[in-house]
Structure formats: structure tokens, C-alpha cells
Amino acid sequence: MKIAITSVGPTLDDPVEARFGRCPYFVVVDTDSMQFEAIENPNVALGGGAGIQSAQLMAEKGVEAVLTGNCGPNAFQVFNAAGIQVIVGVNGKLRDVVSDFNQGAFSTTSQANVPSHFGMGASPLVADPAAGGMGMGGGRGMGMGRGMGMGRGRFSGTDAGPFDLPGAVPGADRESLRAQAKVLEDQLKSINEKIAGLKNTGPAQGLIAVVDLMKCNGCGLCVDACPPGAIAINEQAEVAREKCTGCALCITACPEDALSLKARR
Ligand code: SF4
Ligand code: SF4
């Protein structure tokens, strides 16, 4: 079986790293042959999304289970979707962890045991044996505090129970992901319809962007979206008539729905 363990270093004699997304190394081990590959984590310095990126990396590597100290909700969602088992509260030397794994000493978890952005501060280096599945303490900086898990001790995840079959996704989580996907799908459809409608009556008819000052908060996102540089921020967005081509790109960029097109006069 191919498993990945978050590690402080690149060998089987290094200790487990408590953080998942920003661990220095992922050590992927074949539990039958003990052959392993140490992968330097490319996501250590990411400002955000390290958990998701690292979880996707594990999926690309084809691992069936991930063993770590703590795992946040974003990474956990990816693992669920990919059918990768997660074991938290793990610590000790990697070689011993694999041995314990082979003896069935671990149980998987069914939920994240720390909040989002756990471990964005300085590294706690190794999992805290006292923390176990609770995810208490851990890193300094953002994400300190009590996690959401329930297990105790080194070998307990948060959900006692045998390994599920690879590829299985708990029913409740699957429904939650489906619901989120549906919302995103509807939003995308609505945006595309809006763009299509604007194209039909677009720049050829001499349109220009206008700003609803009751809605504009001056965030400036439309400035970056405007190809000819027709928008400036003077507390709120202002559109230069001579530059605007009516392309509508600013409309899709505005989070406040403060922009629209109107016919030039
Ligand atoms: S993106 Fe929208 S809210 Fe932000 S400055 Fe532009 S018009 Fe205003
Ligand atoms: S419609 Fe196009 S050109 Fe005009 S302000 Fe918006 S992004 Fe810029």
C-alpha cells in the first residue's frame, strides 16, 4: 500500500511533521517493500491554499492514505473527493510509524482536526503526543487552539473504525460537496448568460461602462480587469469615456455588481 507521511526531513529516520499543508517533506512509502520517495513540499511558502495544493499533490502521487499530525478542512475535502484516507495525531519516527501502520495500530478520521490556516505561523516541527487527534496547541501564529477532532493519543484518529474501501466518500460529505458544486455551477451559468447577453448588444452599438456609486466600494478590482485602462479609482471607480470600449470585462470582475453598460450618447 502506498502511504504518505508528513515529515521534518527526507528520510525514514526523521520525525513526523505536525502540519500537513506546510510540512517540509512528504515521504511516500510502499508499506510492503519499505521503498520510499521523499518529496520536498513546494507549497511551504504559499500565502494561502497550501492545504488544498498539498492534498492535490498527494492525489497526483496516487497515495491511498495520508498520515500527519493535523489536517484542516480544505485539505480534508480534497482527500474525501479523491478517496484518500486520513490519519491524524501521528508522531514519532517515520520508520516506526510505518511499522505501526502495518500492524493496524491506526484508525482513520472522518473530519478535519484543526481549523483552516492552521500552521501558517512558525512550525511546531513535530506532532505533539499529548495533542493526539485533538489538534490542541500545535503551531504558533494563526491556527492555534483547539481543533475539531475527537480522538486521543498517538494512534487514534478522530473516527474509530476500520479503513474504508479506497475511493469511498462518506455520504454526508459527498452530499455537501454536491451541494457546493451545484451552487458554483449556477453562479457560473448566470455569469456566462450575463456575458452572452452583453456580447449580443456589445461594443458595436457604442456602449460604455457606468458605475453605480451607491454600490461601488472603491476596491479597484475593475481597474485590473480593464484592458484599455479606462478605469481609475478616486475613492470610487471612474470610467474614462474616451478609453472605454464597452467590452464588459469590468462587469464580471466587480464583486458589488456596481458596473453596467449603457448606450453612449
Ligand atoms: S470592482 Fe466594483 S466595487 Fe470595486 S471599484 Fe470597481 S466598480 Fe467599484
Ligand atoms: S467596459 Fe471594458 S473598456 Fe469599458 S471600463 Fe469596462 S473593462 Fe474597461
Distinct bound molecules: iron/sulfur cluster
What is the overall pLDDT average?
75
When the domains are counted, the total is: 3
- Please identify which CATH superfamily of the largest domain we are dealing with: Dinitrogenase iron-molybdenum cofactor biosynthesis domain
* Order of SSEs: EEEHEHEHHEHEEHE
Strand order of the largest sheet: 3-2-1-4-5
Here the CATH topology of the largest domain equals Nucleotidyltransferase, domain 5
CATH structural class of the largest domain: Alpha Beta
DSSP strand content: 15-25%
The radius of gyration computed from the alpha-carbon positions, rounded to a whole number of angstroms, is 24 Å
Computed structural class: alpha/beta
The backbone outline, from C-alpha atoms, is elongated
- What is the β-strand count? 9
The tally of helices reads: 6
Q: Which architecture name of the largest domain does CATH use?
A: 2-Layer Sandwich
Distance between the termini: 70 Å
Biggest beta sheet attributes? 5 strands, mixed
Q: What fraction, in percent, of the residue positions are helical?
A: 25-40%
Low-confidence stretches: 122-169, 198-205
Detailed description of the structure:
The protein is an alpha/beta fold and 265 residues long. It folds into three domains: 167 residues, Dinitrogenase iron-molybdenum cofactor biosynthesis domain (Nucleotidyltransferase, domain 5), CATH 3.30.420.130; 29 residues; 63 residues, 2-Layer Sandwich (Alpha-Beta Plaits). It is 26% helix and 15% strand. It is built from six helices and nine strands, in the order βββαβαβααβαββαβ. The chain has a five-stranded mixed β-sheet with strand order 3-2-1-4-5, with helices on one face. A two-stranded antiparallel ribbon has the order 6-9. β4, α2 and β5 form a beta-alpha-beta unit. α1 packs parallel to α2. The longest helix has 30 residues. The radius of gyration is 24 Å and the shape is elongated. The chain binds iron/sulfur cluster (2 copies). One iron/sulfur cluster binds next to α6.
